[in-house]
Structures are given as C-alpha cells and as structure tokens.
Input
Amino acid sequence: MFRKRKKPPVEIPTSSMADISFLLLLFFLVTTTIDIDTGIDLVLPPWVDNAEQVQVKSDNIANLLVNEVGDVLLDEKIIGIPQIKPEIIARIKANPKLIISYKTVRDTPYNIYISVMDQLKLAYRALRDEYSKEKFGVPAEEATEEQIQEIRKAIPQRISLAEPTQAEG
Amino acid sequence: MKFQKKIAQTQQTIPTASLPDIIFMLLIFFMVTTVLREVDVQVQYTLPEAVALEKIDNKRLLSYIWIGKDERIQIDDSILPVGAISDIAYQKRMNNPNIIMSLRIDKGSRMGIVSDVQQELRRADALRINYSALVKM
Output
C-alpha cells in the first residue's frame, strides 16, 4: 500500500527579519533630513504689462528707502534699523490704512534688505498679536484658523515693493 | 546550615518576537517622512539672519532658487541665466498651483539680481515666495 510520507513542517526562517529591517531603517535614518525650512513669506504683486499708476494719498504712504551702504530713510528722515519696528507700529496705529512703500537701490546688500523686511514683519506681528489679545484674549500664535483669518483681515500687511533704481552718481 | 543559591523563578530572556514589528513601525515612519532626491547645490551661499520667521510645514510645496556669492543662479540641478527663470517657474506653477518659491540667496548679494529674479517670478505668476533665512540668536 502507498502510504503518504510525512512531510516536515514548512517554515520560512524569520529570525533574520529583524536584521533586514534594521538595515532598511538605518538607510532611511541616514537619508532623512528633519530640518524645517524657515524664512520670511511674501506674496509678490501680479505682473501687469502696462502698470497703471494708482494714485494713493500721500498721507497713506510711508516711504522706506535703503541706499547702497545700508542707510535707511523713512519719509526723508534717517533711521536706525532697530527703530523701524516701533516707528512703523506707531504710524500704523495712527493710520491703519498706511501702505509701506519699500524701495532699494540695485546695490543695496541683501542682508540689509532682509533685516529691514524683518523689522516690518515684526511690526505687523506685534500689531496682530495685540489685536488678537484684545479681541480673543489669546496671543496670535494660539488663535484658531478662523480667528487668524479675521486678524489678517483686520490688519493686512501692506508692503509695496518698488523696483530698485540705479544709484545716482 | 547550607546556603542555597536562590534562582529567580521568572524567565530570564527578553521576548524578541515583537522586535521586527517595532523596527517596522520605525522604518515606516522614516520612509514616510523622507524626501528623497536632494539636489546638489553648486553655488556657495550663506543665508541672512532674521527674527520674524515662519516655518514651512509642507516641503512638497517648495521649490528652491539659489543665488550664490558669485551671482550665479541655480534652479533644480542647473545654473541658469536670469531670463530663463520665468519659463521654468511657469512650468512649475502649472504642475503645482500652490508652489512656494524659496529664495536661498547669499547675504552679500546685491538687490539688483534679487529684484531681477522677482520680476521673472512675477512674469511667471509664481507669486508666493519665501526669503530663506536663519534664526537670529
């Protein structure tokens, strides 16, 4: 008679599974970059072919001018970079419709441009924070999404970038 | 009186049966968070420092433009002239309408070239930009 031969139990060895997945894990650990990009956000104005000149009342404009050595002029008066923030805060409080017209020359160093932009952003951040605390009782960082939208509506960032001009002389 | 060595009744081995599962969980975490295909940056740059920084959570929205010390401009893997930026930026924006152009510009650059790049981006309608900067200590 035929008798079925008893087969040994079939098994895949799994003891090396941990080692293999360790190898993969190490690969992804090494290739992952966790660092988060930080920077200053800005939205450029859309391109128009024939730029219409929009007349804005001169009371509503703060002219910010930076020359090629990094001197800053705010409405014809020379100002130190750290003083920009309190000055802008005071002026926006006095006139909420204020537009900041930020102009540089082609030779202005980029890091001066960034530190002035930083001051403007800090000023807006402080204003929004104050508004948020007054209205919702929480700092702007802890506000909900809808509250943030409302804060943005109440205190919009009005920074106008003028095209840099060639330095004279 | 004889002293008998006490032998612990509990099991001495650490159970390793769940080890692969734990490793797999870690593995999956890193696989998901990894963004592969980093480009080689061919220009030299040092980022400026600022305080009012915003974090960009979504790296997939980002596209980088490097401007080095020698005013060479790099996008993706190639060095480009200023005039070629708008075409590339336009194509990138078609693929991803919410694209954020991250400008990684050397702090010693002049505003002239920065502004030229910005004009090109405006022409391509890629209006969301981000000046990459480091945290000022």
